[in-house]
């Protein structure tokens, strides 16, 4: 009994650990983890702070919330330092990214009040040493390209700068525009000159008779043909059934800058830059007026998602095609394609634009054209009746036999400066698959009244496992950085101007919002997701249906019930409907054919629950990711 009393007394004398200690230890560790990101990845620190603050409410003395607020201020200061350092290094692209990140933080309901007052404003952000706005930064980069004699990227960036100023209500003066008009005259760039004239009440008359004469003139097909080249990629010998055959890729390209820069399709020159290709590859071009010559060329930049590539040829072009950012053809418009079908140089075919807005590539939209196009036309210019380039041909797709398509110039212009910077174009993304759903009549009317055009609801169907939480399946997107969005293509276009590593404020239906750090988009999101996520979670993005796992049997252990079918999806076209039970018998990711295939044993409700085994294929390269 004496020993027991002593033991109880000793236990009572030990200091008691507060019940909240484990939570406090976790909070401190979490704060330290987030604070460590500020110096190298402030965008991830800001995203984490916004997410945690939105999910935790406490009093003014909550040490964890106080720590999060301190980190938010530190992240804003880190972006300000990035902005200043980028300006000092004349890296205007990085300066714009830091500027937009500060703007997103300042607009955020959670972090806006935490951004130091010196860095928070409605239009321009920066410290006393870095006060340049986005429009000015675009103009500075345009001037840098112009100083190098590269008109094509300079003109596209300056157009973007003028558009940013227009959004801010700042109109340029004649004195500002005159040097650019002079450059446009020197380059004979009618679309750019016309865009400049739109900012002045007098129009092109303000730039003088030479400008009016240029805009009134038209180039002939004979002149334009001189600016088109045949692209030839020699890949050595391939063996088929024991016989060696020449392995050649033929395509078309066209000059877009007087310095010898040629635009073409990525798939034409893929072997030149694909790190997985291990064979021989040599790139040459044949000029229109000297088909016997083969001039070496090198790849400068490429964009796999839009199927574009920029080449450099050591030759002076006889004709240069200007690319206008605002040229939008309509169905029924007459078009002409110039190219080298099966290697026959200087072939011109005519037709019409059959449709616009086709979502065939992983990013952007395509023109469907009714014109005679064949292998070898890929990468050639598509021009309208006025001689303006309206697209870059990518000759037929295997799954669309007999149909032909082109990448619209409006999308080409968006990535042109990035192609001139060199290397593969990096895409910023949110890591979300989106389903376009029809709005109810009231929402559709409100959208049209607001000038939204097509009335669609953008609902998240899948979140890639490589991206942060905060926007989950079922959320509906309504805006990107305050600008309303109504289609997947519109969101993709907005993100084309963004950089991986910057912040973006996403508006959600119901008045919610999420501050997200943009990361670098993988070429094939579903291919990477298939190695990191459960198979059933991939179903909405691949097949357009959501499923719920249910208990299976010994013979069919993987059993599910369909919980949702997205209208117009592959699952919808396959006749599946909600509440259909099925057993998954086979799930294959075929990287070579770029497809996913499932085989299911299903009891379709629409067929009276009769049992059947069906196989459903879906493309891996879906166009629904943003």
Task: Write the SSE topology.
Blueprint: H1 2-13, H2 21-35, H3 42-55, H4 63-88, H5 92-107, H6 134-147, H7 151-167, H8 174-187, H9 190-197, H10 209-216, H11 221-225, E1 228-240, E2 243-257, E3 261-264, H12 270-273, E4 282-287, E5 290-303, E6 308-313, E7 334-339, E8 347-358, E9 366-371, E10 381-384, E11 389-394, E12 404-408, H13 409-421, E13 423-424, E14 428-429, E15 432-438, H14 441-449, E16 456-463, E17 476-480, E18 483-484, H15 488-496, E19 503-508, E20 513-517, E21 519-520, H16 525-529, H17 539-543, E22 545-550, E23 559-565, H18 570-573, E24 581-590, E25 595-604, E26 610-619
Parallel strand pairs: 5-13
Antiparallel strand pairs: 1-2, 1-4, 2-3, 3-6, 4-5, 5-6, 7-8, 7-10, 8-9, 9-12, 10-11, 11-12, 14-21, 15-16, 16-17, 17-18, 17-19, 19-20, 22-23, 23-24, 24-25, 25-26
Helix pairs in contact: 2-4, 3-4, 4-5, 5-6, 6-7, 7-13, 8-9
Rounded to an integer in angstroms, the radius of gyration calculated over CA atoms is 29 Å
Tell me the helix content: 25-40%
> What would CATH call the class of the largest domain?
Mainly Beta
The end-to-end distance, rounded to whole angstroms, is 73 Å
Named CATH topology of the largest domain:
Thrombin, subunit H
Q: Mind describing the biggest β-sheet? A: 6 strands, antiparallel, barrel
Structural class: alpha+beta
Strand tally is 26
**Portion in beta strands:** 25-35%
């Amino acid at each position: 009994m004496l020993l027991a009393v002593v033991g109880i007394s000793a236990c009572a004398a030990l200091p008691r650990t507060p019940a909240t200690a484990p939570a406090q230890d976790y909070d401190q560790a979490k704060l330290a983890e987030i604070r460590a990101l500020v110096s190298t990845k402030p965008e991830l620190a800001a995203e984490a702070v916004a997410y945690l603050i939105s999910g935790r409410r406490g009093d003014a003395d909550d040490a964890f919330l106080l720590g999060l607020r301190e980190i938010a201020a530190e992240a804003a200061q880190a972006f300000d330092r990035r902005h200043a350092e980028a300006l000092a290094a004349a890296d205007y692209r990085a300066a714009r990214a830091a500027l937009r990140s500060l703007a997103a933080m300042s607009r955020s309901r959670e972090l806006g009040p935490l951004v130091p007052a010196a860095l928070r404003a409605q239009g321009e952000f920066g410290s006393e040493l870095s006060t340049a706005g986005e429009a000015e930064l675009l103009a500075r980069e345009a001037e840098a390209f112009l100083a190098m004699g590269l008109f094509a990227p300079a003109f596209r960036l300056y157009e973007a700068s003028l558009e940013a100023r227009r959004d801010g209500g700042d109109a340029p003066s004649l004195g500002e525009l005159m040097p650019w008009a002079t450059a446009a005259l020197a380059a004979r760039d009618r679309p750019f000159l016309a865009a400049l004239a739109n900012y002045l009440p007098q129009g092109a008359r303000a730039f003088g008779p030479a400008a009016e004469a240029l805009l009134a003139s038209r180039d002939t097909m004979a002149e334009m043909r001189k600016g088109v080249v045949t692209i030839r990629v020699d890949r050595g010998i391939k063996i088929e059934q024991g016989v060696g055959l020449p392995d050649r890729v033929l395509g078309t390209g066209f000059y877009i800058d007087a310095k010898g820069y040629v635009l073409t399709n990525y798939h034409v020159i893929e072997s030149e830059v694909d790190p997985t290709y291990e064979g021989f590859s040599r790139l040459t071009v044949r000029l229109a007026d000297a088909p016997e010559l083969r001039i070496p060329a090198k790849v400068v930049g490429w964009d796999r998602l839009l199927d574009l590539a920029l080449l450099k040829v050591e030759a002076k072009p006889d004709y240069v095609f200007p690319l206008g950012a605002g040229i939008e053809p309509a169905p029924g418009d007459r078009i002409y394609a110039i190219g080298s079908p099966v290697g026959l140089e200087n072939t011109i075919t005519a037709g019409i634009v059959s449709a616009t807005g086709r979502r065939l590539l992983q990013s952007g939209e395509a023109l469907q054209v009714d014109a005679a196009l064949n292998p070898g036309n890929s990468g050639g210019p598509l021009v309208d009746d006025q001689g303006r380039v309206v697209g870059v041909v990518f000759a037929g797709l295997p799954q669309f036999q007999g149909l032909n398509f082109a990448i619209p110039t409006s999308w080409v212009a968006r990535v042109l400066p990035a192609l001139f910077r060199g290397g593969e174009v990096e895409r910023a993304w949110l890591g979300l698959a989106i389903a376009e759903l029809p709005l109810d009549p009231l929402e559709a009317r409100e959208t049209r009244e607001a000038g939204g055009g097509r009335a669609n609801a953008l609902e998240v169907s899948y979140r890639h496992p490589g991206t942060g939480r905060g926007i989950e399946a079922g959320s509906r997107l309504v805006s990107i950085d305050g600008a309303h969005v109504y289609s997947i293509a519109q969101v993709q276009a907005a993100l084309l101007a963004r950089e991986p590593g910057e912040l973006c404020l996403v508006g959600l239906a119901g008045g919610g919002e999420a501050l997200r750090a943009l990361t670098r988009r993988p070429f094939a999101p579903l291919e990477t997701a298939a190695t990191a996520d459960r198979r059933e979670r991939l179903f909405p993005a691949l097949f357009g249906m959501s499923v719920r796992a249910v208990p299976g049997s010994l013979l069919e252990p993987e059993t599910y019930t369909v919980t949702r079918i997205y209208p117009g999806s592959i699952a919808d076209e396959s006749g599946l409907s909600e509440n259909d039970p099925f057993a998954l018998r086979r799930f294959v990711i075929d990287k070579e054919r770029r497809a996913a295939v499932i085989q299911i044993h299903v009891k379709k409700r629409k067929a009276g629950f009769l049992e059947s085994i069906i196989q459903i294929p879906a493309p891996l390269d879906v166009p629904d990711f943003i």
